[in-house]
Amino acid sequence: MITxxxxxxHWYKANQRxxxxxxxxxxxxxxxxxxxxxTVSVFGLGYVGCVSAACLAARGNTVIGVDVNAQKTEFIxxxxxxVVEERIGELIAEVVAAGRLTVTEEVAKAVLASDISIIxxxxxxxxxxxxxxxxxxxxxxxxxxxxxxxxxxHVIAYRSTMVPGTCENILIPILEKASGKQAGIDFGVCVxxxxxxxxxxxxxxxxxxxxxxxxxxxxxxxxxxxxxxxLPGPRFRVxxxxxxxxxxxxxxxHALKVTFGNEIGALCAELGLDSHAVMDIFLADTxxxxxxxxxxxxxxxxxxxxxxxxxxxxxxxxxxxxELPVLSNVLASNEAQxxxxxxxxxxxxxxxxxxxGLSFKAGTDDLRESPMVEFAERLLGKGYxxxxxxxxxxxxxxxxxxxxxxxxRLPHIGELLTDDIDTVLAHGEIFIAGTAEPAVVAAVDGLGxxxxxxxxxxxxxxxxxxxxxxxxxxxx
Length: 476
What we know:
Number of helices: 21
Shape: globular
Helix content: 40-55%
């Protein structure tokens, strides 16, 4: 064993003091830059909690880490990381040395000493595939008990992934019962989902794609958001359940993208094609492919291209004995969306139906595989009294563009079709909005409260209009 000389020991201690000074100056500068001066307790020092605690401390906050695992807290107490992640070891060493990050196993001590408690405990899958909330419930009860003895405002922010409704229906009642206080009045509750990827989580924290805060009250949401002042990306302040849902939407879509790419790759391989060359072309289209296009919930798709091409691709896969579960279920999912619309009409219990829009999308007279045509035919088949307004289709019937198609394939619908919107308005008890053309928007806004509107296209102003009784949508 080599024993350091007194000179080496003196140099080491001086260097440590210098490093602490550098870190302290860096943290203080960060604090001045962001204007933060909050004490935050972070419950659960696993992957998300450890990264969140270290990054918040590096931004100038005083952070208290809490975990029931004494080994984890001891690691951090020594300036070491309990998780493997790029830059996290260096970051924890710095903020612990600067005194910005401390740890404890005592819940009450952490709550009483902090302004905001961030919950990062695990939510593993239950045996049936549901979510286990046992850790969330336990820590909520402990924090609630600590709040009972605390004067002043405190914010509890859940960063754990949990299904919509968990916070309002399970966790807030636990907090209120244990504390004897009321959420939104005596303390605040937020949901703050994380979007951290393992391997790049520190970079993701510093450069988030977005920041989402669900809140019980404006005061709590503002306090929590202040922790992220200066970070890039859009910010969203939303109801608790919306914030809970965002993480599931992100991860499910990521999983869908991986699966879609793999299924296309499998089919390309069978056909002797370079799948990456195909996907390079696909990815180059940022107008329709890699964009917000087609991602707004609404009615089923149709037209001369999408159904036909999905069928053809699946047929090609079957010819090669290739199983593509995602692609093979696209049309089945589309059919389910159509059934949901029909079921909604049936549930309303009225018989006279007015339909606005018949073509497969606005601005065209094309009826090929239009979901609105299928919708109308199903209602007719169930005995509903239907009238249909579509100025473009009615005109094309007279001019000849769709005349043969209507006369040969849809004569029963042709008899119900008109270009006079007032005729449909006078007839209907329930109105189906399948187009957002101005005449339809004006007609919907002129309806009385005794009429029901099923909006399939989310008409302009739907956000305000949906508070009106009888205004319904599909999937939104």
